Amino acid sequence: MTAADAHPAKKPTIVLVHGAFADSSGFNEVTRRLLADGYPVLAAPNPLRGLSSDAVQVRALLDSITGPIVLVGHSYGGAVISTAATGNSNVKALVYLAAFVPETGESAEQLAGKFPGSTVGESLKPVPLPGGQVDLYIDPKVYHSNFAADVPSKEAALLAVAQRPATGAALGEPAQGPQAWHTIRNYNLISGADKIIPPAAQKFMATRANAKTEVVEGASHLVFVSQPRRTVAFIEKAARETVR
Fold first, then answer.
1. Which of 1, 119, 188, 208 gives a 20 to 30 Å CA spacing to 214?
2. Span of the secretion signal (predicted)?
3. pTM confidence score
4. Could you name the CATH architecture of 4-242?
5. Would you give the DSSP letter of residue 229?
6. Within 10 Å of residue 183's Cβ, how many Cβ atoms?
């Protein structure tokens, strides 16, 4: 029996996909509220090793779920879900949280630099790996100011310690194949004071995807941490509108 089987059929399974420089623990408060509202929830492990391979792993998890799914991605996780959901008829909605929504051939790195205002380049701390690849972290010295400005400083410090790196290859890999947002209803929660993905870039991607959009003014890149109530309301709106 899957996680979805144990819950009422009217409630879709909410699958949460974290982005780079984070892990699933950042969704704790969102998850707590969703569970309290009766939604089955799964937090997908995102390896952050390569866009195509990360999407394959998330797709495998989606294939194991019975019934409707609302698939949620933050930041780089948005690029992952855009590929992972393609061809899965159970995915009824895509929800992007301060996320990349690439078209085929575009990378997260490319989209972050499409409009001025991103501090991601100056924030990265590379760790060389064998074979010439690098792991990329947000330097803890600027994690709060550049990544999580509206999160309390003590909480941001913990998130900086727990962050998981993405490879340079993952952030630079272009999206391949058809992107799911062309055929699946999608929603985009834009962080209005984002210093990682500029709000102008988020709005561009949301408009292109014909997304239902809300802007959280003053929110940092970690909008789902600083604004869990608003985030949950947005996810549940998608669930109600797409799964009846």
1. 119
2. none
3. 0.95
4. 3-Layer(aba) Sandwich (3.40)
5. H
6. 14
